[in-house]
Amino acid sequence: MAFPSLRSLVVRFLLSRLRTARSVARLAYRRHAHKPALIDRRGTLTYAQLQERVQRLQAWMQAQGVKKGDVVFTLLPETGEQYEARLATFENGTIFASFHKHLPADAALATMVRVRPAVLIHDPLLSAPILQAVREQLPGIHLLALGEDYEQALAQHAPAPGTAALHEDDIFALHMTSGTTGLPKSIGYSNRKYLDSVRLISKSIDFRPPASRQDVNMLGLPLTGPGSGLVLPTLLAGATLVMPEDFSAATLAALIQKHRVSRAFLSPSAIIDLLDEPTLGQYDLSSLTHVPYGSEMMPAPKIAEAIRRFGPIFQQGYGCLEALPPITWLLPHQHVDAQGQPLGNDILSTVGRVMPGVQVVIRDEQFAPLPLGQMGLITVLTPVRFDGYWLDPEKTQETLRDGWVVMGDVGYFDAAGYLHVLGRSADRVLRHGQWLNPREVEEVAHTHPAVKEACLVQHGARAVLVLSLRQSWRTGHDWQALEHDLAQYLAHKLPADHQPDDVRIVEEIPRSFLNKMLRREVRLMLEAAPARVAHAPTTGSPTASLSAAHP
After folding, report:
1. Number of domains the chain is built from
2. CB of 479 within 8 A of CB of 506?
3. Residue 370, SS3?
4. Which residues span the domain enclosing 288?
5. Per-position b or e across 475-503, b if 16+ CB within 10 A of its CB
6. Which of 16, 192, 410, 518 has a Cα at 20 to 30 A from 273?
7. Is residue 326 part of a domain?
């Protein structure tokens, strides 16, 4: 999550002195009052206008008796009101938490009953299934509905700054896991931890803002997810934050062109969608100078294609809610050679090298360190790790061992010190008595020009590779014949013990609200699909097969 001017002496000096999220926000209001701060469906707000709305919302909370340390939840779409609510909690020292709009209503209710927030700011369309239960089970909660109620609350209260004394060790946010595998887990982060993460980032990023125009950051990931990592950097830089209502390729491209976006934080899937968007050539994306990407592993062939298309403007880091970035960096200049051409897959498939001050150790199942080059569990020791899940000591013990965060991923270090992340240990596939890491198969599938996305999953006793096609291959091809040809292609490219038992083409691979592939949903798709003859690899020339079938 890179951002502009962090190498500048001014910002570095400010970072050394700032202690709370409130101090960051107030500095931004003061230094950048007349600059545009936020662009969303309502239009543009300057920093002064944003400050007024934030302080009116803070005053409403204060009038309800909400105090420092209380939890404020939002259940909102990707709107500027969600940003305002977050900044209002910075102002008064309450603890901000948010549910994404795709979380099942009963999971949201169960989480609120566990955490017992003082406030719920909600969209009635999202909260309707649970609102009555919220009133009954949390009788003291203060509810504020998006729309007329929200605007009236702001209009009826004069803007007022928060008066509570804040400390860097105060918890300022509850980060929520996505909840795709059960109830969301909550992680409380202090001002100190979050600003330390920003300070670590500032030691590596050396990107200058545009010389003659406002710096514009665009969220290509939800603010309720990794997009929240752009909040403090945007405020520190005095940049404009563009909040899309959806993250489709056409929407993102149009916003980049319209607002001359300089930096966009994107998911790998969003980049893949942009590369596959048939109308992309109609948009002027030349304003983009920097694209951090994250939330899941990026296929090396696709980031190489993106570099050839857009230039050496991409950067990724490794991290998670339990161990904030940066753990590793692969900076833009580390993606390319001296001529600006993308490096090989052996580098682009990695997450870079470990940051100074952070330790990463690959371990076996008994938690013993493994030698260089051996694959095992990725564990991290970092000054910006979490201290535990909120009200969940049992889950904490599973993830935090002797101060080390067990990332849940498997991987290894190569001789040059690059960390290769092969995916979640829980996603491994058992084939003929041997465990396969899906990424080792999926990366090879991405080298075929027809493949948009690839997902290797367990289906009974078989390893099935599920693929979606790029737009240019969706028409004019027999999909069943193409499945056979792709199986032959992989038979040629992969060792025998890594070849899938079957290849299936689907319209789209299901994704989460973070634009990540949902392997569980892919497995359910296969279970629901009618049985048919598998496309197992055979001997022969895959090149001849492909060229004959697809002239």
Report:
1. 3
2. no
3. coil
4. 9-296
5. eebeeeebbbbbbbbbbbebeeebbbbbb
6. 410
7. no
